[in-house]
Amino acid sequence: MYVIQSLGDQLPFPNNYFGSVISNSVLEHIPDVQSVLLDGCRVLRPGGKLVVTMPSQYFTEYLGGALWFEKMGLKGLADAYRRLFNRIARHAHTDSPERWARRLARAGFEIEQWQYYFSKKALHALELGHIQGLPSALIHFLTGHWILAPWQSNLKYTERWVRPNYEENFPELGTMIIFVAQKVEETPTQAKLPNKKILSFSRLAGRNNALPIAPPKSFTSKAPS
Q1: How far is it, in rounded angstroms, from Cα 149 to Cα 138?
Q2: What's the mean per-residue pLDDT of the chain?
Q3: In this structure, is residue 106 part of a structural domain?
Q4: What are the CB-based long-range contacts (under 8 Å, 24+) for 150-158?
Q5: How confident is the model at residue 208 (pLDDT cuts 50, 70, 90)?
Q6: Residue 152's CB: how many other CB atoms inside 10 A?
Q7: 153: domain range?
Q8: In a domain, 138, yes or no
Q9: Residue 97, in any domain of the structure
Q10: pLDDT of 217
């Protein structure tokens, strides 16, 4: 197992090196995300799979604090809460699947499957977790440990609260999106967004998607212009 650190738009691998590329809740934090998608396409073999997840446009819309302010008729405070939460989460993008489809197409990808996940209820649990984490942040500051008693019995109430969100069905309109796309070009292609459907990852496995067992001895990291 190798761990290599680099900038997302300057991946230290040659062209057409990987059979698959995975990005889990990363792209939303990168302002210049298009250059990262371009370099991801460069290192991917033709026909290779790109699997990415990120917040949807409903992430900020469904925030419980913002919905409460709107219910009280305080739209200005609701909008300010959304901006604050995105700032805390370091989100540069919380966009619709249509907008991500255009970005992926400009990088040379064609979307094969996609769907929403992470319901409004799950988002509210995540949102409240930020507040409930304040005592742990204080404990970490004082002791260097996030949890002083990391026993299953100590965490059973948290597990009971969070578990239903983990086991939930895929919502019609979720606060997160997952895409499975295929590299078809190294130049912009036509943006297409197929109908949503429940993803199946079994067919993504195969020889074409096997990761190399060692980093290259020499490589060129120059991205296509």
Answers
A1: 15
A2: 87
A3: no
A4: none
A5: very low
A6: 7
A7: 133-167
A8: yes
A9: no
A10: 54
Write the Ramachandran bin of 195: left for phi over 0, alpha for psi from -120 to 50, otherwise beta: beta
Residue 216: per-residue pLDDT? 56
**Is 85 contained in some domain?**
no
Domain count, the chain: 1
pLDDT at residue 43, as a whole number: 95
* pTM for this prediction: 0.81
Which of 91-95, 127-131, 161-165, 216-220 has the weakest average pLDDT?
216-220
Q: Which residue has the tokens 């604090």?
A: 65
pLDDT at 211 over 50: no
d(CA 172, CA 156): 30
